[in-house]
């Protein structure tokens, strides 16, 4: 997969050199190209924003730097053999970024991110590129960030860990909170490792029982408990039929 990010704060994307995403790049599973939007400004002050038509507070990012930047990024990418780009536009007005959308994006070969500062980017930029490629406007939650760069880090990490071979153990997706299956829409419960006793606190006995059925049922119950407490809105979406089947297997 190829990722391009166009931003006025390239250093904000430095974490993409670290940890899982950094390793995936190192192994050649992911190519990341970060571009400074101001390379496509031609005035003395490297202007990227201007006052909004119709009035109102704040500033709007201008069409020309974004258009020239995206044209260059697209030409370079195609030249290097990339294909089927999609534009990912981080914005608090976007559709919610979910695990389902992360899976969809992880199946695309080329993502181009346009994190904005100020009040956002002149709409015509997206209308223009939407004629050539899918445009996903995504929000990472119901709060307002000062810019989209942190959202790029969030989306990239969620997508990169789904790429083939990036996570050491492919099984580790299976029990993810929000993964499909019997535990769909349940949050993951607590986890434990050695030592079995710490500061007078023992791990739950069932985890030492060696009884896979009982362990699975305990995990399911803990997941239900945690979901009820932290995300009651998710409970109505879980599938009781899937649980009944699991219970019969025990
Ligand atoms: Cl993607 N961008 C900004 N600026 N704020 C947000 C967001 C994105 N998602 C939630 N809040």
Automatic annotation (TrEMBL):
Its main location: cytoplasm. Gene3D superfamilies: 3.40.1280.10, tRNA(m1g37)methyltransferase, domain 2 (1.10.1270.20). The keyword Cytoplasm applies. Keywords: Cytoplasm, Methyltransferase, S-adenosyl-L-methionine, Transferase, tRNA processing. S-adenosyl-L-methionine binds at residues 140-145. It catalyses: guanosine(37) in tRNA + S-adenosyl-L-methionine = N(1)-methylguanosine(37) in tRNA + S-adenosyl-L-homocysteine + H(+). One of its GO terms (cellular component) is cytosol. GO terms for molecular function: tRNA (guanine(37)-N1)-methyltransferase activity. Its EC number is 2.1.1.228. InterPro entries: Alpha/beta_knot_MTases, tRNA_m1G_MeTrfase_C_sf, tRNA_m1G_MeTrfase_TrmD, tRNA_m1G_MTases_N, tRNA_MeTrfase_TRMD/TRM10. It is an enzyme of class 2 (transferase). Residues 1-236 form the tRNA methyltransferase TRMD/TRM10-type domain. GO terms for biological process: tRNA N1-guanine methylation. Specifically methylates guanosine-37 in various tRNAs. Homodimer. Belongs to the RNA methyltransferase TrmD family. NCBIfam families: PRK00026.1, trmD. This is tRNA (guanine-N(1)-)-methyltransferase. The lineage of its organism: Bacteria, Bacillati, Actinomycetota, Actinomycetes, Kitasatosporales.
């Amino acid at each position: 997969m190829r990722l391009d990010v166009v931003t006025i704060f390239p250093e904000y994307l430095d974490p993409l050199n670290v940890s899982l995403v950094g390793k995936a790049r190192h192994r050649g599973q992911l190519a990341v190209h970060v571009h400074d939007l101001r390379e496509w400004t031609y005035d003395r002050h490297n202007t990227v924003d201007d006052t909004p038509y119709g009035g109102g507070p704040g500033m709007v990012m201008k069409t020309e730097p974004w258009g020239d930047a995206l044209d260059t990024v697209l030409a370079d990418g195609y030249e290097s053999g990339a294909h089927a780009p999609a534009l990912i536009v981080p914005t608090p007005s976007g559709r919610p970024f979910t695990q389902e959308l992360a899976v969809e994006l992880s199946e695309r070969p080329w993502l181009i991110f346009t994190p904005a500062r100020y009040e956002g980017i002149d709409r015509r930029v997206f209308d223009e590129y939407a004629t050539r490629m899918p445009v996903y406007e995504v929000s990472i939650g119901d709060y307002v960030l000062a810019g989209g760069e942190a959202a790029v880090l969030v989306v990239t990490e969620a997508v990169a860990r789904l790429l083939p071979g990036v996570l050491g153990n492919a099984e580790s997706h299976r029990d993810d909170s929000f993964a499909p299956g019997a535990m769909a829409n349940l949050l993951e419960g607590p986890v434990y490792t050695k030592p079995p006793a710490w500061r007078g606190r023992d791990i739950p006995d069932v985890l030492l029982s060696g009884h896979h059925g009982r362990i699975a049922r305990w995990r399911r119950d803990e997941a239900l408990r945690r979901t009820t407490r932290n995300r009651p809105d998710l409970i109505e979406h879980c599938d009781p039929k899937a649980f009944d089947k699991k219970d019969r297997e025990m």
